Please model this.
Amino acid sequence: MSAYPSAEVDAVVVGSGPNGLAAAVTLARAGLRVQVLEAQDTIGGGARTLDLGLAPGVIHDICSAVHPLALASPFFDAFDVRARGVQMNLPEASYAQPMDDEPAAIAWHDAERTADGLGADAATWRATLGTLAKNQDLVVELALGDKRSVPPAVLSPHSLTIAPLFGALLGLQGTPAWNLPFRTERARALLSGVAAHAIGRIPSLGLSATSALLGTIAHGVGWPIPVGGSQAIIDALVADLRAHGGEIITGHRVRTWRDVPPARAVLLDTTAGAAAEILANRLPRSLEAQLRRFPHGNAAAKVDFVLSGPVPWRDPDVGRAGTQHLGGTRGQMAAAEAEVAAGRIPQHPVTLVSDPSIADPSRIQGGVRPLWTYAHMPAGDTTDPTELVTAQIERFAPGFRDVVVASQGISAADMARHNPSLVGGDISMGRVTMYDMIARPTARWDPYRLADTGWYLCSAATPPGPGVHGMNGWHAAQRVLRHEFGLREMPDLGPSA
Ligand SMILES: Cc1cc2nc3c(=O)[nH]c(=O)nc-3n(C[C@H](O)[C@H](O)[C@H](O)COP(=O)(O)OP(=O)(O)OC[C@H]3O[C@@H](n4cnc5c(N)ncnc54)[C@H](O)[C@@H]3O)c2cc1C
Model:
């Protein structure tokens, strides 16, 4: 562990994930002296892009790869990541759902084109996701708020129609009545595939909320792939933090409060359990117990491939999407997720795939390209997922094995090796149910503030939950500025400020 400098700081952030950095930038912009302590040797948590040594020059997104939430997020809108030179390139299609016995279902960026491909469900798709996409800002404010205050847009007159539509889609897709509004298997599977960005049983309200939000953004700002990988977003945050006097110390894992220099405020970009551990016996007992009890969800196991060419999808349109959801029909996906929920490895696990080079040709180096994939697995499972994922891709892309040059599989249990917050492979820092999304990690009025200690939680373990949107860090930092520093006016985050 490297020693931290003795110079006094106003605020310390433990963890340099997107939320830790969003908080750090906000605090530094308010004029505070900020120090970030990161356990790993590399900065960025779930948004790092690294050379895994699989092929010369080929870099891999070791966690997040596709960034609808960063493009739609109010925090990143205020920070204006694109004005800082981060190119967020949009594939022609946001996501694709290949099928065994019929043409793939494709969610094009254009909602009309998507509806046109969905036959009997064209009108319903237009009336639901098409309409929501036209009102994306309202949907995003609803979904990415702190779940404790009413977002201003919700008070606008047009929210009287849009909020109930969002609620109806979310509600119906989250219950056994989920097949009612959509008649075709392709439209149903398309929605279940996008729900698979969270891990849990389907149908369920937690996953249908994910589906409604990401499905809306797919036809709104779209699902971009940053040029140079997710790290480009992190690099922009780091540059801004350093420009405002902040510093980052890597290789410094905080195990107890004693590992943190004295500061008026400390923000933890960690799991709820890690926060309880670090502050053991320094929090009110009931709060410490609640943090320890906050449940983890099931897991992802990752495989990074190097390919000699594009994935040979049976339906070529599938390759025009930035993300593929592999699982087949809605019923097949529900069965696979039920296996995972029961602690068993499914024969055909739900698998997410992205070839970043379709939006960023610079990712092809020496004629070979990276392929990002992960499969849903039971928490803590130790199986190397490479063969399961390869077989699942072969199912929809015969000949896939022939283009594989190299691969690296990481079991669910091993995911925490490169980020201690991925406990047992849980990529969401806590279970994703509707209750847990609102009451994460506790049902308290202020879920960020750890009582009167000056310590706060700012990670994905708080509302609005997982994803690279920086909102948890931003919500927490605003509370720190108000409670600990008496600042009511929030700093301008824009590039020219
Ligand atoms: C495989 C995978 C794929 C994903 N795909 C996507 C995607 O495509 N799009 C998307 O939007 N989201 C995706 N996500 C989710 C997204 O990455 C996370 O929700 C997001 O990174 C959470 O940000 P965070 O800052 O809260 O935590 P993290 O990004 O996990 O960062 C936490 C940081 O804190 C550090 N840390 C933890 N404990 C300590 C400690 N005690 N001391 C010091 N440092 C500590 C960690 O090392 C880490 O750097 C994916 C996640 C995974 C794992």
In short: The two ends are 35 Å apart (CA to CA). Residues 1-6 have pLDDT under 50 and may be disordered. The pocket of flavin-adenine dinucleotide is lined by residues 14-20, 37-40, 45-47, 63-67, 69, 253-254, 269-270, 274, 300, 302, 374, 419-422, 427, 459-460, 466-468, 472 (CB under 6 Å).
